[in-house]
Amino acid sequence: IGWLAEHMSHDMIAKILPNVIYGLAITQKDSIPMLLDIGARYFEFRPAHLLPQFEGKSQHVPNRPYFQHACIPGLAFEEFLEQVVRFLDENPAEHVVVHVRWDNIVAQCRKPTPEELDAAFDMAVSQSSTGLEWGGPDCFSETIAALRADGRRLIRVVEADKYDSWTAEAYATVGPTPIIERFESMNAEGQQSTDITVLQCQATSQSIKEVFVYSLLTAKADT
Question: What is the pTM of this model?
């Protein structure tokens, strides 16, 4: 946004800014049901409330936690959980892990309390038609058969310590090579002191100045 203000006129900014904000708000191009159908079983979700100055300003945007990209709201947290529960009801052999984190969310966007998080998951599984339950990190020490037997197929972790393939340097790329090299450098020893291992397949190409500028200048709803 600062780059826009420095290099473009006010009228140009006014024209392009809605598309830039729209683009920043969409972190996945596919819907949650589609992502589940094509195999996604791990989701990182960053739930937080709207900025205080936006709360209660529109009947179309209720005061509730949304996925926050910095301070730009996306999908509502409760809608996300409802869609995950629906999928798990329809697929009784499957499990889904939800990793709740708050990376890079502005401080003014209030995070749900632990009690509010519990209530959101309780409400979601209460709508299950198959007796679905949610569990915490202790689920990782049990067998899949045991988790299926008692219905704990929705697993939640909160700001877990990750053994993560992502680094700012390697992922600032438009090609796969540095990411593959990161995968190949990881090992079992690196996992021992962490809770979960995450292999990220997406590049953070907007960290490249030229890509960032191009993405701003060409931003529109279909990109």
Answer: 0.82
